[in-house]
Amino acid sequence: MSFEFFGGTSPVDVGPVYEGERIRGKQMYIEFGGPKVEKHFELCRVNQDATDGKVTIIGPDIKDMEEGSSVPIGIHIEVAGPQLEEDLEAVFERRIHEFCNFVNGIMHLNQRYTNWMRLSKTAYEKGFDSLNILGAILIRLFKAELPIIEKAQVTFYTDAEKIKEPHAMAMKVYNARDERARGLHDEDVDMYYGCVLCQSFAPTHACCITPDRTSLCGSINWFDARAAAKVDPKGPLYEVPPGECLDAFAGEFSGVNDMIKKRSLGEISRIYLYSGMEFPHTSCGCFEAIDFFIPETGVGHGIIDRSHNGVALNGLPFSAMANQTGGGKQMPGFNGISIQYILSPKFQQYDGGIKMVVWMGKTVKDRIYELLPEDLRDKIATEEDVSDLNDLPAWLEKVKHPIIETEEYKAAVAGVEEEEEWEEEGAMMPVGTVGMTIPGVGGAGGFKVILKNCKIHAESIIIKKIESRRGKKK
Ligand code: SF4
C-alpha cells in the first residue's frame, strides 16, 4: 500500500507484508550499523516534551552517502503521552525492528547496540533518498500501532564523531535496565510473559520471559514485558501463568509448555527454561549470543556473541552457528541467549551452569567480566588464551577449571586419548580423522560421528549415542 504522512507520500510501500524481506549485499544501496561499523544503537525514551512529527538528522543524509558504504546509525525515538511510563520504553524500542521491516526496501536486524539495517538499491531509485522519510514513517506507525503514544519525534545520528555521546548515553540506559532486572528471580513472581514479535521470521518461535531469563534478543526483561502486557493485553507480549512446576531444576512449568504448544501450533510441546541441551528454549534469529556445547569436554560449553570477529573454539564463526541455532526449532547444543541470562544464577543450571562454561569470545567476556563469579572468571578461556580445541585440556588443567573434576570431562578426555592411540596402532594418517557431533532432536543427548582414515571415501563411520548425563544438581 502507498503510505502518506504529514511530509508527503512515501516513495515505497509500507506494510506488514514486507516483514521478512531479505536484502543481500549486491542488492543494497547503503548499510546502516551492523558488524562493520563501530558505533550504532537504537533507543526509545519517554519524553513528555517531545515535539510531534519532528525528525532530525545529525550527520550526512542518504543522498550524501556513497553507494555500497556501511555507515553509523543512531535511532533515538522520543515519545509522549499521559499513560506512558519508563517500563514501556524497551518494548516500544523493540518495535523499531518491526516497523522498519514494514518498509519495502528496508531490512532491519537485531536491536540495541547491535542494530543493522540495509536500504535496497530499488528503494533508493524510487526516491527513498532521505532518513526524513524513514523518520516520518516510524512516527506514523508508532502512533497508529500504539495509540497510547500521542506524540513522537525521531533523531538519527549518522556522523561517526557525533554519535559517540548519544551512544554512550544509550549504553548507560541499557545497563540500568539490565541491572534492575538482575535483582529479581523466577521464584519471586507468579507470572511470566511471552512474546511472538519474531514469528514473521521464525513462525514456531515464542519467547518465554521470566525474571531470570531476559528475552534472548536482550531487549525485553520481565519488567518491560509486564508493562507491555498490561497496556496492550492483545498485543505481541502476553501473560504466561507458570502453572504447575514440573521440574524446578530444569525450569519446566506446565503453563510454559501449554504456551509454547499453542504458539508454535503444536510443533513444540516442552521447554526446559534452564537448559540448552534438553528441551531447550527455541531461538528465532535475534539472540545476542549463542551458548554452544563442546562435546570434546563431555559437559563443557562455550559462548559467542554477535560482535565476535573470526571463529569460535569449535572452528565456526557466529554466522554459521546462528544458522544452526535460529529458525524457531529446538536445537540441543546450540541455544540463543541474552547476555543478561549468563549472569542469572539459573543460567543453564540443568547442564551444569556457568561453572561448565570453559570458553567465551573476548567481546562477551570483556562485557560481563566484573559480574562473573570471581573464582571462575579467569578460568574461562577466550580466543586469546585458547584458539585450538586441542589446546583446551592443557589450559583447563593449568587454571584448575572446575570442569576437570567432573566424571563427564574425565571420560571425554579418556575417549579422545583412546582414539589417538587407535590411530597410532593402526598407523593411519591422523589427517584423515574427522569427528563431529550431531545434536539430538527434542532433547536427546545427540550422536558423535567419527570418520576415520578417510581420504576420498570414509572407511568407517562410528555413530555413538551420547548418554545424557545432565540434570545433576551440582
Ligand atoms: S527475541 Fe523474543 S522477546 Fe525479543 S522481540 Fe523476538 S520474540 Fe520478542
> Uncertain runs with pLDDT below 50, 5 residues or more?
426-435, 440-445
Strand fraction equals 15-25%
Q: What is the number of helical segments per DSSP (H or I, 4+ residues)?
A: 11
CATH C-level of the largest domain: Alpha Beta
According to DSSP, the number of beta strands is: 22
Straight-line N-to-C gap: 57 Å
Which small-molecule species are bound to the chains here?
iron/sulfur cluster
Structural class determined from secondary elements = alpha+beta
Radius of gyration: 24 Å
Number of domains: 4
Features:
474 residues; alpha+beta; Bifunctional carbon monoxide dehydrogenase/acetyl-coa synthase(codh/acs), Chain M, domain 3; Bifunctional carbon monoxide dehydrogenase/acetyl-coa synthase(codh/acs), Chain M, domain 5; 4 domains; four-stranded mixed β-sheet; 11 helices; 22 strands; 25% helix; globular; binds iron/sulfur cluster
